């Protein structure tokens, strides 16, 4: 009977905690994101453009043919394909909702509902975790308030939807402490949690498995029983790897996409009291923004004023029992220490300076770069600090008033940042935070005409809006725009395309895009009669594409387009090193360079003057001794005036 009552009480707490989380979500997000047919905030982006990547990955996956592994789409990084895990499209959710989305028809986005579930589970598991240390109903819910208003929850949910699943850490801690009290190591909940983590975001794996390992070690050493924990860990790992394999996380070979960046996104030593988030949002009414360096912003870990005030009080009051708690949970302490060290990394930063860089072997750096944003791995320690602050305050003589005061101070302090995120969401549902630069009427002719979008070289401007255009049009793209991809295979396939173009072979179902004018001019001459070829700009001139569009050679487009013909202008090569500054030789400022191409040679052959804005500058010499470049010396005082200008010859 008592067990039934405990289960009922636990269920009631979980449901009430979930309600708290949902209320927090609705206060910040509203209901517009819960309309699956409303994808405005996904397309326009908020805070960062990442949501566009996540949504585009889902669109490509939904529209592509079902393949195996289940999470792989061949429409991205074509023809190799890639798992939507690496577009952060929440692969498990994408796979499960794909049949529903196709049956629904039309626009279907799940990012709003996923975030609502994350907030609900944050409140539910936050309440359960607190209930292990305090009794009743009111106190655990007050503790849950600290977790549903956690600054890192809002910072991550708005930047990377999948990383809004902060409840994974709270659930792992709940199962850990629950099993410890029952003197057990096996937990179906913890087992399932570890498996599901790989289907949401791989960064949760080292966190939940670290907590699992602590539980298993503490049990095995205290009972001298190793077989059961070892089998549990092995079977859990195998099940996790199996789901990862089914979702395509091990599909293909990743040779690029963020390797050897460990240390750049490290946690600054001021992270716990630095309230500044992305785009300068400050999550405190009292504490000022602190300086950061490199990618410290990704390791945002502001505790909140309430927790920061409570921790010293708790530490002083519990100083006599601290050693006892560490002795009882020694393995959890060790994994927390290791996670903290990994988060701080070998590049130790404090405020606006790099204190020191500890040299590590290249292979170690590359291995650690599997989790290159190492500062995120501090989250279990973060949640434990919040838990310790709450439990310590909730055990004061007047527990309810003390816990209420803690929660109110915390909410009051972090409310400016939370409100700013509310404003960000409102803005994202009304206007595009990152409007498309595909403003020319050229782009309006693309849907329905081509089956494939080929990025022949480099990274295209406004690549994510290009990806959305391709996905909406049912096109495939060779652009991976993913966290991991096979760079060698991509470059090999691009080289094949360049060879085809040089031989005059054009795929009529393919739109060709170039990043740099030099490569475009080398490729365009043999195929110019079969396609519209030229330069397309954004309205403000900050984005430029060089395109070969088969079948459109008879079309005329708006003023943002410059057709490649005999009147196409010359431009300086965007070349900069120790001697050259954007195509101008620094030492004399009289020599300029152009990318070598049949077009540039034809323009310069026999020319006496290089002209710009009605001014003619005599050509003294043309030097082609450096392969790939044409260097032209002019009778000019300072050739930097020619940069980014349309040039002609005579």
Structure characterization notes:
With 650 residues, this protein is an alpha+beta fold. Helices cover 46% and strands 11% of the residues. The protein is built from 21 helices and 17 strands. A 6-stranded mixed beta sheet has the order 6-5-7-9-8-10, with helices on both faces. It has a 5-stranded antiparallel beta sheet with strand order 13-16-15-14-17. A two-stranded antiparallel sheet has the order 1-2. A hairpin with a 2-residue loop joins strand 11 and strand 12. Helix 3 runs parallel beside helix 18, helix 8 runs antiparallel to helix 9 and helix 12 crosses helix 16. The longest helix is centred in the middle third of the chain and has 30 residues. It is elongated. The termini are far apart.
């Amino acid at each position: 009977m008592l067990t039934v009552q405990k289960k009922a009480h636990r269920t009631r707490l979980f449901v009430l905690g979930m309600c708290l989380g949902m209320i927090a979500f609705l206060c910040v997000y509203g209901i517009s994101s819960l309309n699956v047919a409303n994808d405005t905030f996904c397309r326009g982006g908020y805070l960062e453009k990442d949501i566009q990547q996540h949504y585009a990955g889902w669109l490509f996956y939904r529209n592509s043919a079902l393949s195996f592994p289940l999470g792989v789409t061949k429409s991205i990084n074509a023809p190799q394909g890639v798992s939507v895990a690496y577009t952060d499209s929440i692969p498990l959710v994408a796979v499960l909702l794909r049949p529903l989305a196709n049956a629904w028809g039309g626009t279907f986005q799940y990012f709003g509902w996923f975030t609502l579930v994350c907030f609900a589970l944050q409140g539910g598991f936050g309440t359960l975790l607190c209930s292990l240390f305090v009794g009743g109903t009111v106190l655990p819910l007050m503790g849950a308030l600290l977790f549903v208003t956690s600054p890192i929850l809002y910072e991550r949910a708005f930047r990377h939807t999948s990383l809004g699943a902060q409840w994974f850490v709270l659930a792992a801690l709940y199962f850990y402490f629950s099993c410890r009290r029952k003197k057990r190591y096996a937990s179906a909940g913890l087992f399932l949690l570890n498996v599901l983590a790989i289907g949401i975001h791989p960064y949760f794996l080292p966190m939940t498995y670290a907590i699992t390992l602590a539980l298993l070690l503490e049990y095995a050493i205290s009972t001298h029983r190793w077989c059961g924990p070892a089998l549990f860990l092995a079977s859990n790992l195998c099940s996790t790897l199996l789901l990862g394999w089914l979702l395509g996380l091990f599909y293909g070979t990743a040779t690029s996409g963020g390797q050897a960046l460990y240390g750049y996104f490290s946690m600054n030593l001021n992270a716990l009291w630095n309230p500044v988030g992305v785009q300068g949002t400050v999550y405190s009414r009292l504490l000022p923004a602190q300086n950061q360096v490199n990618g410290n912003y990704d390791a945002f870990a502001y505790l909140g004023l309430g927790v920061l005030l409570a921790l010293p009080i708790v530490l002083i009051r519990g100083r006599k029992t601290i050693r006892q708690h560490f002795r009882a949970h020694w393995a959890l302490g060790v994994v927390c220490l290791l996670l903290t060290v990994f988060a701080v990394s070998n590049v130790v930063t404090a405020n606006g300076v790099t204190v020191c860089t500890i040299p590590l072997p290249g292979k170690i750096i590359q291995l650690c770069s599997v989790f290159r944003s190492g500062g995120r791995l501090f989250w279990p320690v973060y949640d434990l600090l919040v838990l310790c602050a709450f439990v310590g305050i909730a055990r004061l003589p007047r527990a309810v008033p003390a816990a209420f005061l803690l929660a109110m101070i915390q909410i009051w302090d972090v409310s400016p940042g939370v409100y700013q995120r509310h404003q960000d969401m409102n803005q994202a549902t009304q206007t595009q935070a990152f409007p498309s630069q595909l403003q020319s009427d050229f782009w309006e002719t693309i849907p329905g005409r081509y089956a494939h979008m080929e990025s022949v070289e480099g990274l295209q401007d406004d690549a994510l809006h290009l990806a959305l255009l391709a996905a909406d049009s049912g096109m495939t793209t060779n652009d991976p725009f993913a966290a991991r991809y096979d760079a060698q295979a991509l470059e090999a396939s691009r080289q094949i395309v360049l060879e085809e173009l040089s031989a005059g072979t054009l795929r009529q179902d393919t739109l060709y895009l170039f990043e740099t004018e030099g490569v475009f001019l080398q490729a365009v001459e043999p195929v110019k009669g079969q396609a519209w070829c030229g330069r397309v700009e954004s309205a403000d001139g900050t984005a430029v594409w060089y395109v070969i569009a088969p079948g459109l050679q008879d079309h005329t487009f708006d003023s943002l387009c410059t057709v490649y013909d005999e009147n196409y202008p010359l431009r300086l090569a965007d070349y900069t090193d120790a001697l050259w500054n954007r195509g101008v030789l620094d030492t004399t400022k009289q020599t300029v360079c152009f990318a070598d191409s049949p077009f540039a040679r034809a323009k310069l052959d026999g020319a006496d003057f290089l002209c710009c804005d009605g001014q003619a500058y005599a050509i003294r010499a043309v030097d082609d001794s450096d392969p790939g470049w044409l260097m032209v010396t002019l009778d000019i005082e300072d050739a930097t005036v020619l940069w980014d200008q349309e040039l002609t010859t005579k």
